[in-house]
Amino acid sequence: MNRFTFYIVLVLFFLPTLSANAQSRETVRTSGDVMALVTPVASLVTTLALKDYEGLKQGALAGVTTVATTYALKHIIQKKRPDGSNDLSFPSSHTSISFTGAAFIQRRYGWKWGVPAYLVSSYVGWSRVYGQKHDWWDVTAGAAIGIGSAYLFTRPFADKYKLSVSPVVSDRHCGFYASLCF
Fold first, then answer.
1. What are the residue ranges spanned by the domains of the chain?
2. CB atoms < 10 A from the CB of 169, how many?
């Protein structure tokens, strides 16, 4: 089963939770809790399966940065949750962790895999709002932290032959520099 099929199966499995009348908020919360781990686990499994140890290091740095930033902000800001359960609502850690995995997948392996990952992460964010654990700005901030952390550390997966082209400007001329790594 390839990654795209895996994501589609997961989305279809949890699709019934999108019907607000048929499912309780608790069911949606639970499905969001489970789905929050899908993209980070998919990232880990993919890097190990491909023996992409550089990607593993990049993903780990993005993950640690996301978790540290998210929990530091939670304890500094202390915003009350919509359901009143505690004062650790801002930003959404479920969303930040899920979007870190999605952005890592997209940045490292391309949009072909990134789109399904972002769909899963979007469901996680929606489930946190619907489940009354967060407001939209909590989820938006969590997504921004996750995406930002992944983009900060993640570089595209290197092909066997990598062509790099960059502009060069000096006081006498301008042009392009090209290099081919093999």
1. 3-181
2. 8
Between helices 136-153 and 53-77, what is the axis angle to 10°? 150
We find that the CATH architecture of domain 3-181 is Up-down Bundle (1.20)
> Alpha-carbon distance 149 to 101, whole Å?
10
* 168: pLDDT strictly greater than 80: no
Q: CB-hemisphere CA count at 13 Å for 14?
A: 24
pTM of the model: 0.76
pLDDT digits (tens, 9 = 90+) for 44-87: 999 999 999 999 999 999 999 999 999 999 999 999 999 889 99
Helix/strand/coil for 53: helix
Cβ atoms of 50 and 109 closer than 8 Å: no
